[in-house]
Structures are given as C-alpha cells and as structure tokens.
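So, can you check?
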Amino acid sequence: MAVTIGQMHVSMLTILRAPLLLLILYLLSKNLLVIFHLWLQTGSSLPAVTQALLDKLCKALLFSASVVLVLHYMGIDLTVFALFGGALGLGIGFGLQKIVASLISGFILLAEKSIKPGDVIQLGDTYGWINFLGGRYVSVITRSGAEHLIPNESLITGQVINWSYSNNLVRLQVPVGISYASDSQKARKLLLEAAAATVRVLREPEPVCLLTGFGDNSLNLELRVWINDPQNGLGSVKSNLLEDVLQRFNENGIELPYPQRVLHHKSIPEITIRTKPDS
C-alpha cells in the first residue's frame, strides 16, 4: 500500500518503519551525547560555560539530524516545509517572541561568559548564587533557600550586579555615627579593631575608616572592609561587625547619637492694659 502525492511516494511499510528508525536514531543520539558530555568534563580543559554551550549545541544538532534523516527515509521532500516554516516563523514572531528571546539570551550568556553557574548576582531585590543556567531560565538560590527562576531575557536586558564576575573580592561600606562629644580618633581606632577581629573580614586589602561628614546630630564615620566569600551573604558580616563595634563603644565611653532639637523661646514684651471707667 502506498500513497503518491506529486513526486512524493510514501508506502505503508515506510510509515511503519519510520517510528522505529526515529527511536533508534534517538537512542543513538542520546548515547553519543552522554559520551560527548563525559569527554567535555574529563577529557577537555574547557571552562564550564563553554562545556554547557557545546553540550546544548550538540544536542540540538543530533536531534535535528535524526528528524531530517527520518523524513528523508520516508521520501518526503523537505522543500514542502518551506511554507510551513514561514508560517511557523510568523507565529514565533507574534506569539512566542518572549520564549525565543529567552532561548537566544541563554546562548548569548553562555557565549559571553558574563554570568555562569556559581556566580553571586543581584537582580533587583533578588540576591543569591546561580545554581543552574538553562536554555530558557536561570536558577538563583537566595540565602533564605528560595529558588528563583529568572528568564534569560531579564539578565540580558536588565541591570545585573555580578559580585563575582572577575573575582570574589567585595567591599562593604558600614556607616557608623557618633555624638559630637565623643573622640572621633578613638572611635575610628575602635572601628578598625572591630574589623580586625571579625572572622570573614580580610586583612589585605586592609580595612579603612573615614570621617565622611558632619550630620545634624552625629559625626558620620564609614568603615570599609573587604570579603572574598559573597556567596555566604553580606548581612552576617555587617551584623557581627556592628555587634563588636557596639560593645567596644560601650566599654570605651563612645556615645551613639540621639536626635536633638534646640528651641529658642522669644519672650513677650510687657503690655500695660488700661481700662476706661463706666460713665
């Protein structure tokens, strides 16, 4: 039994054999992908981002080739799909533009290496490290354990802070205010001692403490320290640092500022009141 449509001749036996051939090619492609993936991890010295990019390209190439071979075996002229491809492209342009944009953005991220698995990033209010970089989205795990799935398009078009892009060094700025009655030189010394006693604060680059301005109620100091493990969070370092600073200030008589207001009372001049007697 066969069907002839124009120059295309398709038999029932070919139709029955096509799924079997597609299954064989699928299993063969899957095994080749496993071998190629193992070679990328063990036999090549390529970066992890390049390995992920090559793995995705090889997967798309093998599966596409399998489909083309099955269609060719069935005797189907691939030029008949030209009209279908145009209609599909039009549909993608209108209905699937967000998905396609995320897919293309994923390949751009893998090629540019601007964001890779293990990086610590901040996108808006989301702060965490990249656990997985997929073709459509990026998995970002925050310090609270929540896993955010962010579309790749947002990482390309939006502003992203990559705390570990070139290195893991991150400078923290900790503002501290003291009262005007306190010794600023002594306070700066105590701040540097607290920084030296904090575990995650680096000795090199060394911490610095600056007088940044004169506030309404306080002398404004700023302690600047460096860490090299932003994936462990920034809040814990600041918390430990400020607790040590508070203890040292209390032990050495450094006062923290309180809001103060000065009121000027203007006295009312004496007024002489005269009454007119009744006539």
Notes: The mean pLDDT is 79. The chain has seven helices and ten strands.
